[in-house]
Design a protein that fits this description.
eight-stranded parallel sheet, two-stranded antiparallel sheet, 14 helices, binds alpha-D-psicofuranose, binds manganese (II) ion, Rhamnose_iso-rel, isomerase, L-rhamnose isomerase
Length: 392
């Protein structure tokens, strides 16, 4: 690697030290596909143990201090106590994810269901999740609806949008002044003909009507193949409506594989837009992982994912913005592209190792985790770990 100028190194290192990545409680539990869940030894038996695994990821990476919960997958009697437990472990509870997709009642939809009684039940769950946030101190409520239809004519698209708008309004109005609503879109699945929130445009339109604290969340696995996700990032940033990411990677559909595994260049392009907007820290964007580790060891996979995000970020931070701008203004098509590729082609691993040393961490988080004996310990202690909830 060409030596970095000392001032570049100092600037990039400071940004990398300040970066925050939120891990998801469900990544630590057993998961699989609709064909099979292959159980792993040592997986957590309850939300308390999931937090212990998340704290382990934070211990070795130093940049993953919060954990997203999914309600009711992470059902406990006392969320204040769970928040205290998280603090004792050196982490905090993060985004609260709602679940209005697993009850039999939701066969024809949750908040867009034709039956007003079922819509009331679904809204009730969303409001309960805000109660949970009050106890956990979480800032963000993340909404993803599996609602949609399988056949043309099955239900009326516009009426369903009206029902959705009503539910979002009631939930938004229940939020405290420091709480936000993140609305997630997904092209298809489980609905195969029409999804009620299929794309960023629909999510954006609802958020715009709701108010400032309603923001769009981009799950990188939720688009048609070939979609230019960094364009969506840029447009939402420009509009002040990007609330966060659910990071993962995909080859086909919503694969939920490790972020940066399938297309590290796409992740770099996304992070480049973030860096261009100076939105890595301080603008409230939540950088979350939404992944399932069906085959690979889970804690190690989450650590790997955090490192993948860090690597893409480090490369994005190395883009020479002045040179890029100059080439763009001169109409130097290849020159501008070369500026980006120079940054992308830089081996940032030595830089990240030294940043970790500056933070008092082992420069090799995966090696350090493996040497720590944590997995052997939990394998011995935990018998009969729980399902993540997903792919059951
Ligand atoms: C739906 O596919 C989704 O991306 C939502 O974020 C859910 O909360 C999550 O997956 C569950 O894994
Ligand atoms: Mn998601
Ligand atoms: Mn998904």
């Amino acid at each position: 690697m060409t030596e970095l100028a000392p001032e570049t190194r100092t600037r990039v290192a400071a940004q990398l030290r300040g970066q925050r990545i939120e891990t998801a409680s469900w990544a630590y539990g057993n998961s699989g596909t609709r064909f099979k869940v292959f159980p792993q030894e040592g997986v957590p038996r309850d939300p308390y143990e999931k937090l212990a695994d998340a704290a382990t990821v934070h211990r070795f990476t130093g940049v993953a201090p919060t954990v997203a919960l999914h309600i009711p997958w992470d059902l406990v009697d006392d969320y204040t106590d769970l928040a205290r437990h998280a603090r004792d472990l050196g982490v905090a509870l993060g985004t609260i994810n709602t679940n209005v997709f697993q009850d039999n009642d939701y066969k024809l939809g949750s908040v867009t269901n034709p039956d007003p009684g079922i819509r009331r039940k679904a809204i009730g769950h969303l409001l309960e999740c805000v109660d949970v946030m009050d106890r956990t101190g979480s800032r963000d409520l993340k909404l993803w609806f599996s609602d949609g239809t399988n056949y043309p004519g099955q239900d009326d698209v516009r009426t369903r949008q009206d029902r959705l708008a009503e539910a979002l309004r009631e939930t938004y109005d229940r939020l405290g002044p420091d709480q936000r609503m993140l609305l997630e879109y997904k092209l298809f699945e489980p609905a195969f003909y029409m999804t009620d929130v299929p794309d960023w445009g629909t999510a954006y339109a609802h958020c715009l009507t709701l108010g400032e604290r309603a923001q769009v969340v981009i799950d990188t696995g939720h688009h048609a193949p070939g979609t230019n996700i960094e364009f969506i990032v840029a447009v939402l940033l420009r509009a002040g409506k990007l609330g966060g990411f659910d990071f993962n990677s995909r080859f086909y559909a919503d694969d939920d594989l490790m972020v940066g595994a399938a297309d590290p260049f796409q992740l770099f392009r996304i992070m480049h837009e973030i860096v261009l907007d100076d939105a890595l820290t301080g603008k409230g964007i939540a950088f979350m992982l939404d992944q399932c580790h069906n085959l690979e060891p889970k804690i190690q996979a989450v650590i790997r994912s955090v490192l993948n995000v860090q690597e893409a970020t480090a490369k994005a931070l190395l883009v020479d913005h002045a040179a890029l701008r100059a080439a763009q203004l001169e109409g130097d098509v290849l020159g501008a592209n070369e500026v980006l590729m120079d940054a992308y082609d830089t081996d940032v691993r030595p830089l990240l190792r030294s940043v970790r040393e500056d933070m008092g961490l082992d420069p090799d988080p995966i090696g350090a985790y493996k040497r720590s004996g944590y997995l052997e310990k939990v394998r011995a202690e935990r018998v009969g770990g729980t399902q993540a909830g997903w792919g059951a």
